[in-house]
User: Fold these one by one.
Assistant:
Number 1:
Amino acid sequence: MDNQSVVEYVLKKAKETASIRVLPIGAVTIGRKGKQLSEMSELAELGVVGFSDDGDPVEDPNIMRQALSYSAGLKLPIINHCEVPSLADGASMNEGWVSNRLGLKGMPTSAEEVMVARDISLAELTGGHVHIAHASTKGTIDLIRSAKANGIKVTCEVTPHHLTLTENTVMGHDKDDFQPLGTDAYDTNAKVNPPLRSKSDVAAMIESLNKGTIDFIATDHAPHSEVDKMTTFQDSSFGISVLETALGSLMTLVDQGQMEVNTLIKKLTNDPATFLGMDIGNLKTGTSGDITIIDPNETWPGRPRRLHIKRQKYPSRGLAA
């Protein structure tokens, strides 16, 4: 949303019809084209909770510097999808031995890490708050850890699928060898951006979430219909339906002893709210009682017929929700 009228309309409709809390995020640039800043001050006055060009990275470093300068004054984060387009162009999965075996063009981890390093440097220069959306590599986390230690205003998030799935999912099995591909190989539901990374990257994500370097979990929910995904892996759209399967898939980390259930719940509720400067997502006296009741002992497969949003299934090699 890059102008006042759109923000006002969304807030009005949300007040009239929404059964959930709607928190608007303003666009960093007009039309998300990365050329001209939106009227950030005006959008802030209307109540946006941050600024982002969504899946489009703010490629121009001078534009990002200006945005972060406004961020410092407005006390609102700039949320960036960190990806150097020229390094990511044409890629459909993580670059590595799996992409080589499958004959798919891979996206190097540097496509993310180069822009993360740039944004951290600009945040230090301006005093603005940069938030790294869907961090996915160990290198990214190393950069963020160092920046936080130096007092730079940087936060980050990780998605459920970058905590529970690896690049091996695209092969249809989890083995690190050249045995025959699984029947679920080239599952287009596993095509996401950032791509599913290596096992070592996933391990780093889990460790960093537990230790607090990663601030919270966000779904990066980007659903597509089954028809949209019924093509070759290379030609398929990026995106995964996560909203309904997030908690269930993440509970597997609890079951495996990789995360405490209280940590998981906090990273899904209170910590995202804290990032947005809101006193919600907790059970303190006097706060909003937003509660979801779950049965931690019940499992169900994340198949299209069980889902409501565009009926896109969770990747076949994914875990039961």
Number 2:
Amino acid sequence: MNMKMIKKISSTLFLFVASIVLLSSCHSKEKTFSVNGEISQAEGEVLYIEHRGLGGIAILDSVKLKENGKFSFKEKAPENPEFYQLRLGNQIAVFAVDSTQTLDFNADGANFYNSYKIEPTMPNAQIKTVITMQADTKDKISTLMQQHKNKELDDATYMERVDSILSIYKTNAADLILGNPASAAAYYAVFQKIDGYLIFDPYDKKDYPMFGAVATSWNRFYPEAQRTKHLYEFTMNALRVRKQQEKQSDFYDNITLAESQLPDISLSNVKGQKVSLSSFKGNFVLLDFTAYQSDFSMQHNEIIRSAYNKYKSKGLVVYQVSLDSDAHFWKNVSVELPWTTVYEPHSIYSDLLKSYNIRELPTAYILNKEGDLIKRVEDFGELDHLLQQIL
């Protein structure tokens, strides 16, 4: 073998070895984060570390805990804030990672969720606060639902108390969100749910700013993150829908002869016969949504009765929709009423609440002879005056 060939082989071998070293070097410099810690009273149990991604939860690694309870996980670090969790049995501890950092985790296996602590504390202490608030809110609403089911609460009281509980969560969560909307805790807070429904409603004018604040901040600090793109698209879509809803609300709240027809209603009366709202075209209609089991019902129906007796000769009819949860109670009351009453079996969970922009009970609208809405009744004390002007 001549010297020229030897040099060629040596050169090729050098490049091959160099490439392996380079690749190995690059791999060894891969950014990672670590979670180290100790869980007492958990010998023999399996601890999992999982990624809470947009597409779902994925297991990254696991370890069977020994007597001392010590563990250590090392995972690829995310380029932007991401959410993970440690899972022991059916208990989880959620945390966020936004850099190549080391987290220290300690907990009592017998009381995993309540006892766990993570260092550094921010933003993970805030995330735990959010989770605790959500769980507390869910428990309180579940209690109210059971009381409502047991007939211990009427429909209006139930709705009022649920709204009050949600308002407390929103007030506390809003302070956290607006305090640092770019934080992982703020992102986590706006997407909390109860029974599959977001607590902050992105389509509600009062709740939307929470999503807007987080989306704007994340778009500024993490413009390439998948979570940012998802949140931004979600928020902009909600804005478009909300604008459309506001147009609908303006339509309901202002005295305008709208060309668009209201969604028709067809429900059963006390005789079991289907009666549609549209069947009353040619008359002025007082469309009233109420609940007979509510404290306000007796006084409310006296106001309706007075207006009906005074203006029925001028073409006024009443189409009253009961949202009571107790059909038997509705029948006992409605059989004594001189106007049309129908029953919505879905009660306060009816789609009519959204379709007719019902924010509270009672709610009423006045429709003209063509079936167009011409006024939302804001104050039932002014009902007689409104009808006098219109009729």
Number 3:
Amino acid sequence: MRVERKITFHGQNFADFYLEQTTRVQEKIEYVFKLLKTVERVPKKFLKHLEGTDGLFEIRIEMDGNIYRIFCCFDEGNIVVLFNAFQKKSQKMPKQELDLAQRLMKEYFSQKERTDEKGRNKKR
């Protein structure tokens, strides 16, 4: 079954990471994003919920023996919000990357709560 999801990012971390990658890695990222946008149940090979977190996921990319991870969450079910990304160099998840993703996710929802759908601050 096809779905329509929107992909957006919070902060500059993901954009900076993406621009540093080779064209081939960028193309693989775009391929996985296409799956995220259109496939109802994305295979765990490409998307995995991170245990012990409140709704944080990792997008999993493999290219030429290198492993890349992009942290994200779902908002309103059909919006994928990207936070930060890194090239994985060991089996263990880098704590600083995970902490950054959790901080960015908290910041995103806090900021969203303070603004209306047009991006203006809500009146209190």
